Amino acid sequence: MNRLSWFNVVSLTLGFAFLYIPMLILILYSFNESKLVTVWAGFSTKWYGELLQNEAFLNAAWVTLKVAVFSSTLATVLGTIAAYVMIRSGKFFGRTLFSGMIYAPLVMPEVITGLSLLLLFIGIGLDRGVLTIVLAHTTFSMCYVSVVVSSRLVTFDQSLEEAALDLGCSQAEAFRLVTLPIIAPAVISGWLLAFTLSLDDLVIASFTSGPSATTLPIKIFSAVRLGVSPEINALSTIMIAIVTVGVITASLVSKQQAVRQKKEEQAAERAA
Amino acid sequence: MNSTAFAPWEDPEATPLIQFQNVTKRFGDFVAIDDLTIDIYEKEFFALLGPSGCGKTTMMRMLAGFETPTQGKINLAGKDIAPVPPNKRAVNMMFQSYALFPHLSVWENIAFGLKREQMPKNDINDRVEEMLRLTRLEKFARRKPHQISGGQRQRVALARSLAKAPKLLLLDEPLGALDKKLRQETQFELMDIQEKTGTTFVIVTHDQEEAMTVASRVAVMDHGKIIQVATPDRIYETPNSVYVADFIGEVNIIEGTATPNGEDSYAISWAEGQSPLKAASAKPFSEGQKCHVAIRPEKVTINAQKPDGVDNLVQGKILDIAYLGNISTYHVELPSGTVIKAQAANTRRIARRSFTWEDSVWLSWTATAGVLLAE
Ligand SMILES: Nc1ncnc2c1ncn2[C@@H]1O[C@H](COP(=O)(O)OP(=O)(O)O)[C@@H](O)[C@H]1O
Ligand SMILES: [Mg+2]
Question: Could you tell me if the CB of B55 is within 6 A of ligand 1?
Fold first, then answer.
């Protein structure tokens, strides 16, 4: 390793400060005794207690979780199928157009996606609620899943599938027994991506949610407009904690797997 | 080989297991297989030999069901296989890349095909154990493919493709990744397994020695066509073209024009001021026809003194000696500039051999030693 020069140290510090100081402040103030967000009055966890009493927040959290689970699962199924078909179908008429259309929502402004979905739901007379948010989130997160999965499928050795067919599998069995288990890590990351996208989406959710169902980001956003409360800081801290734990676990697991695989491969080489 | 040797291709009554009937395969405009017709018989160990890109893998993939012929018909046991999908064919393939399932253990890889047939659990166990024994992998049953060596992986691939006891086993350059010693061992293992199981093997290789070692018959291919199909010894001794002669082993090719000279016998004039060569050929050549004499280096005798009573005799100077331990190949330059290779067994210690670089030597061979080829 090169020793860090003072220039690198400074850039690193500034970069990290830029990224994390706002969050640190938020976490710090969630433990503030005072109701005034800008005045430190000693350590307390009382806002976390109050959060648990807040029916509206808990409801919104529950809706958000439901929406995230359903939409990310649906998006993963659809996105994986789309990626598989795009990579495997070879050349067919209009292929470029199709694959372009799958990825278009990635660059589409969210406001437009939200608005068009709103018009659709009104047009077909669907009452806005959990169902419409799930549908909307599925639509836009599906293309993210499809990007992640197809980048894995590109490097997938197709002869594995042919071997499965050769040994008596139908196409569907070959996918279920061979392809899916092997690309599972990509599918899972696709799911996680869709899940977090759904968790923090504000724009599309505000177009497609109704009075019967509000998600947490909408709730937080409307509450903040009346002033920041320590309760919201506490809620945000919990969300940060959940995301942090998730990310660290995922990276630890994959790192451990890579290390173990490498060790085993080396052992196999030595034994040969 | 004796006269009762296995040779169904000489029996007009025998029905072939595989029949390619005027099969053509095109990829776009590119012709990968060109109007190919061939019969392969049950229990054969059939080798496809040819340079890279000549269509060997494409032939295999058509048999396995991953490609369909553009034209023509492939029969397996008398039935057209075109409508049969790969998973319903009594054909298994060992892939060039092995294609082992990385998420399954060696045991599960071998059992994979058996489970698809709804075989009872006990039978699966027995069969997998049998395959593990056959390929000497008992100790590695619980390992994943990335936990074993290259040679072991190759044996797993073989065991997996044999487990379903297919009528026909396709092996696509199965030993390509192995080093020479392991490859030779495995070749004998393959022959052993083929004999024990009675399966028909079609093996693709670009290694002519491998084809000669394992195969009952060899097909030499070029540009999607089969140039010659014959037993290894016939391919070697009586190639039907300069291409085949040159592809299999070392050969001297001397170009000349033929003059009939008695029954099945020809005089070949080949260089200014040199007496014509004598060559025998059952195939007729007309007066003045261009032809090639193909002679294997081991059929050319090298002498320091001029020998008597030989059919063909030329004098030259030793240009180079390739010492291979048991034999040496001498590259001898004739006054005409032609270089002829002659091989001799090193029966004496190297320090006592009778000739060395720049020595003048006599090369001789009989009229029947070479093959006369039109092209
Ligand atoms: N799916 C394909 N699309 C286009 N060309 C192909 C395809 N498969 C094979 N080819 C071409 O057909 C020729 C024969 O290929 P192959 O059968 O793999 O040769 P070999 O196995 O003898 O090396 C090659 O020139 C290759 O480029
Ligand atoms: Mg090939």
Answer: yes
